[in-house]
Amino acid sequence: MTVQDERAPTPGRSNSREAFRVALNKFVAGERLDMQQLAAELNVDRSTLFRWVGNRDTLLVDILTYLTNRALREAEGAATGSGGQRLARIAEIYAGKINAAGYYRTFLRREPERSLRLITTKASPLQRHVVQTFEGLIDKESARGFRHSMNSGDLAYLTVRIIESFVYADMITGEEPDAGKVRQAIAALLQVDAAV
User: Fold this and answer.
1) The whole model's pTM is what?
2) 122 with 41, same domain?
3) Over the stretch 137-168, which tens digit does the pLDDT of each residue have?
């Protein structure tokens, strides 16, 4: 499995896609998603909107997954090298994209508990998705000769937790988020040189 194509969730109807598109644009603009306002803008009642996109948390996870897929795909495309060095570089680029996304940082500051719950816990499919994506990237490098001593799923989970530790450092320890530390830590985990 490699990074998935960038696409919105596959709702069955064009109305659902339009609702997702409007919500995505609001989120990227740094606006708080308000389901009542979104329903009014789409000229539907809340129950119709909920049928189209689910509740607010579901919609937020869909938006975050869409944006995450884009960032992961760009990171995979930009990373050079092979094996553990390539994996560490993908993680660094991905973390850097998250850190640089103003809308993402705005969401984290405005709704810290909700954002961490939706992004970093088993309560949301997003973390599972990112772990599975990194597992696919690890398997891809393994097929090219990269060797590691752990199960790919466990290694992917640790990789994602390292990324989270440095991306959300300001919320966890009060330190600044640092994508460079992501590469260093993952290179150490994979026992490869951190230099790119």
Assistant:
1) 0.87
2) no
3) 999 999 999 999 899 999 999 999 999 999 98
CA dist list (Å): 57 to 100, 102, 147, 178, 185 = 23, 20, 39, 27, 31
- What is the CATH classification number for the domain harbouring 177? 1.10.357.10
Terminal C-alpha separation, the chain: 24
How many structural domains are present in the chain?
2
**Contact between residue 161 and residue 59 where contact means Cβ atoms under 8 Å apart:** no
47 residue type, one letter:
S
CA 122 to chain centre: 14
C-alpha to C-alpha distance for 192 and 140, rounded to whole angstroms: 17
For residue range 7-21, list pLDDT tens digits in order.
444 444 578 999 999
Minimal CA–CA distance to 138: which of 71, 67, 82?
A: 82
Domain match, 145 and 80 both:
yes
The per-residue DSSP string of 34-52 comes to: -HHHHHHHTTS-HHHHHHH
**Does 70 lie in the same domain as 27?**
no
In whole angstroms, how far apart are CA 23 and each of 39, 52, 100, 155?
A: 10, 12, 21, 34
How far is the C-alpha of 142 from the C-alpha of 87, rounded, in Å? Answer: 11
Rounded to 5°, angle at Cα 98 from 133 and 140: 25
